[in-house]
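Problem 3 from the worked examples.
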Amino acid sequence: MADPDTQYDLLIIGGGINGAGIARDAAGRGLKVLLVEKDDLAAATSSSSSKLIHGGLRYLEQYEFRLVAEALAEREVLLKIAPHLVTPLTFVMPHVPELRPLWMIRAGLFLYDHLGRRTRLPGSRGVDLRLSPYNSGLKPGLTNGFIYSDCRVDDARLVLANALSARELGAEIATRTECQQAKRVAAGWEAVLHEPHGAERTLFARGIVNAAGPWVKHILNDRLHQPSRDNVKLVKGSHIVVRRAYQGEHAFILQNDDRRVVFMIPYETRYTLIGTTDVEVAGDPEQPRASVQEIGYLCRAVNRYLAQPLAPADVVWSYAGVRPLYDDGSADLSAVTRDYTLRLDAQQGAVPVLSVFGGKITTYRKLAEHALDQLAPWFPGMKAAWTADAPLPGGELDGGLDAFHARLANEYAALPAALLQALARRHGSLVRHVLQGVRTESDLGTHFGADLYAREVDYMLEHEWAACGEDVLYRRSKAGLHLAPAQREAVAGYVARSRNALI
């Protein structure tokens, strides 16, 4: 039996969006929570998304009405509780008659406007693509289209914000910590953790949540020794980043001749993000990469529409994530459900393990509520659901993001405006903690480039679980996209020296 000082109500395995969301919800309901993540928070699928909070317009073709309705409702919630990380985005859909008829597009957009309660975003409408600004970058022959609204998100920082909130509420967040094995004992689970620097730790938990994403089946079968007939279908989605392919702050949703859709999204001011693909993964999902074939596919898909075609040589960065979709038996990867399935194994009343199959970043908060609802019988003193109205850390922005930018510019008049905007997008109202004691730019320490200074890196190391250069450059910020190799090496070296000084 584990030492009494290492007893928890809930052990959560996996530090992606679902694990972090469940940790936050559970801690706020009064449970003692430990979340373990073998790598960094959001190191896998949750930082490799299309960076969208959206209902999923194309899911209507698969009759996923429940999923779309829930996602549309959650879009409104996330706009409210994380306004620094989730912001409105206008989408333009050029109409290509031979791909989908006009009536189908109109019917789909009508449903999209009305399936979920919409209070913050405008509805859809037709648009003449011969007129500015929505014709920017498009071939002249495209004349008719539609516009509708969804949102963009900093996916990795959304995970981080949930982990920060969970910690504030008493949860323990252990990164670089792997659950080696767990077994059922009287009234709970005994688990063995492999911690950083080779240490082992044994603990007791009254229940386990398996939110390991692509590794959910492996954890369930091999680490928890629980047989299951549920399967996960691993589907890789790759994205490419190119220099701005068009002017304007709107995104495009482009129909492809295989009946999939591809997004073009303004990204990090100077770039366009293009995605995504659907490729089944048969082996180990560790460290996926965008293949030559996928990069070519994405270039061909957008070149149907762009006046200036793209080539693979135009790609300045690419990334890929493995989606752990619930295997519903569909042979068409694009048709495999993006909905989530929660499997509760309590073995005739024994202590539970709840496994999360599937899901999408937009519905993580609702997934967490449903997970806690299923676990409620084992935690009779647990409080009610609460996260729908509680801002995430940094989300307390009276008057919205623009008004907050204006206040920051007044408070920190000696600092560059671009820096303040970058900090506000990353940290929201917590930016004042990052800048505590700062009066002039010289107080920020070394400037690595791309509005990244030593002061903020120190904050990420001390308060945000960052432990290496990649954590800072690509998850806590996107500075790595903007920096030269030597600058990235300088950041990694600074992080390593700072970490060594702390150990």
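Problem 4, a separate protein:
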Amino acid sequence: MKDNIALCRGCRVGTRACRFGANDFVAIGNNEGRVRLTCPSDFQGGPNVAHGGWISGVFDDALGRFLTHGGLLTVTASLTIDFLMPVPVERPLILAVRIEEVDGRRRIMSGSLRLEGDDRDRATARGVWVERRPDHFDRHRAQITELKASAP
């Protein structure tokens, strides 16, 4: 099975493409997906090397987006990134995602980032995504309203 995966909410606004460059994203079966992408040069953290924030953001987006494809609306509960080797900018990359475990509303996910054609992981991720309750954002809006009301 190979299906296109929808863009995240932020990227669906207008006709923008994915802000992380993860436009070529496909699901392979029910528990695995892959995305082809390239880190743009304006996300350099060092000379010709991707910034760790870009790498972290790409993992958060791709792992969560895979669940959205399966019809689950989730939020990230935790995300751990291991930076193993430099990730060069402007080079084709493959980010693999996998559902490792399902525990009620929780999905334990893993991911790996490699140069296209290379079998060595440049970075890996592991995290937990929790299926959102219907009032998830209502609760957050109420908290923000309360904070604004109590601000000096």
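Solution to problem 4. Strands lie at 2-4, 24-28, 32-38, 44-46, 49-50, 74-83, 92-103, 106-115, 121-131. The helical segments are 9-12, 52-69, 136-150.
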